[in-house]
Specification:
The protein is an alpha/beta fold. It has a seven-stranded mixed beta sheet with strand order 1-2-3-4-5-6-7, with no helix packed on it. Helix 1 links the parallel strand 5 and strand 6.
Length: 212
């Protein structure tokens, strides 16, 4: 398991395997030094085998084929979870780690459940950002917390990992441009190789004809 491409922005505690056509999360040896895992835009259908990352704080599974929120309890330190744009129709809030401070479920049918937001807030006492919207606490809660509710910018200050590509939206277009440029370079290289092979074939035929 290794990052899909090198980038100076991502620390060594990060694994990035987005857009790699991954269909499942396999069982790995324990990787306790990994804090951030990016698996967005793959073909993953099930959340599983994440106990290999016991200290994980950030998990991005956006843009996959996940139908259920499950098997996240082995992640007691998980602070931010992006499951946006999957196929989750019914949300079981008991499966969400209580440590979550940021949760994104946009683009899933479960966000249309009756009292969806109330249920999520009741299950996650530390949540400050839900579907990119700050949680507005009542006055008593704000005083107990020592101030007003946090904004998305506040969380970026608290969690620098959020400045790297985390959700489908953030830096999505730059990633698309990178991918298009990579494919364009590959097509040019393949065309050049085909052209060279064709020239070599023509040279060989010419030699054969001259030899006759």
């Amino acid at each position: 398991l290794c990052p899909s491409r090198s980038t100076g922005r991502l620390p060594t505690s990060t694994i990035r395997l987005d857009r790699e056509n991954i269909s499942s999360i396999g069982k790995l040896r324990s990787l306790g030094d990994i804090l951030s895992l990016y698996l967005q835009q793959n073909q993953i259908e099930k959340i599983e085998n994440l106990d290999s990352f016991p200290n994980l704080r950030f998990l991005c599974l956006a843009g996959n084929r996940i139908r259920r929120v499950e098997n996240l309890q082995p992640l007691p330190h998980l602070s931010a979870l992006d499951l946006s744009h999957n196929q989750i129709q019914v949300l079981d809030t008991e499966e969400l780690p209580h440590s979550l401070q940021i949760l994104d479920l946009k683009g899933n049918g479960c966000t249309r459940q009756e009292r969806y937001r109330d249920l999520v807030l009741a299950a996650l006492p530390h949540l400050g950002l839900l579907d990119s919207q700050p949680i507005r606490k009542n006055t008593a809660e704000e005083k107990a917390a020592g101030g007003s509710s946090s904004s998305e910018e506040d969380y970026e200050e608290l969690f620098p990992e959020l400045r790297t590509p985390f959700t489908v939206d953030k830096d999505f277009f730059s990633d698309v441009q990178w991918e298009l440029a990579r494919r364009s370079r590959r097509r040019r290289r393949e065309s050049l190789e085909e052209h060279r092979a064709r020239l070599e074939e023509l040279r060989e035929r010419r030699h054969l004809l001259l030899g006759l």
